[in-house]
Design a protein that fits this description.
By secondary structure, the protein is of the alpha/beta class. It contains seven helices and five strands.
């Protein structure tokens, strides 16, 4: 942030699924879509998770249907990437480690219950275009984690979302959040 003084509150971002199809991270994405975070005086933290951008591999959107065990293993890796990011932020003197927030968009919002249920360092979460779809192995099914989320959550959804419909996806997540 240009108009704030450290220590900064940090917002850790988890991107939508198209990050698995994009070869290289482009800073213009953050500048165009997430610039409100630094403008608000907070630090934007954008980890490059396994299977995204320069760390792309065989895991792509839809993998959970075709190769559920591989998807499960990747969820564990994404959780580790997120945890290591928080570990790193705790070492920085310019970040207020007691005021960390999670921002998940689409895929990042759908996966959020798994991460928020096991990671207690987040003090707030914002989920954009998220919901529960109920299509994964039990050990990585968001439905099995959502009631264990203790972090305050703000859900931002669209009434006409055809991927995460209101009645079958958004409202179940909203009602079950711990």
């Amino acid at each position: 942030p240009k108009k704030a003084l450290p220590p900064y509150q940090a917002v850790v971002y988890f991107p939508p699924g198209n990050a698995m199809q994009t070869e290289k991270y482009d800073a213009s994405y953050s500048e165009d879509n997430l610039d409100f975070i630094p403008k608000s005086g907070r630090a934007l933290v954008f980890p490059i998770y396994k299977s995204t951008f320069e760390r792309r591999d065989e895991c792509k959107p839809g993998t959970s249907y075709r190769r559920p065990a591989m998807f499960r293993d990747h969820v564990f890796l994404w959780s580790k990437d997120l945890g290591r990011t928080l570990d790193y932020l705790e070492t920085r003197k310019d970040v207020e480690r007691t005021k960390l927030a999670y921002l998940g968009s689409s895929w990042g919002a759908e996966a959020a219950p798994m991460f928020l249920a096991v990671e207690d360092r987040f003090k707030a979460a914002i989920l954009q275009s998220g919901g529960i779809r109920g299509r994964h192995l039990p050990e990585v099914e968001a439905l099995n984690f959502v009631t264990r989320v203790q972090t305050p959550v703000l859900m931002l959804n669209d009434r006409y979302d055809n991927i995460m419909p209101v009645e079958s996806s958004q409202l179940p997540m909203f009602r079950l959040l711990g």
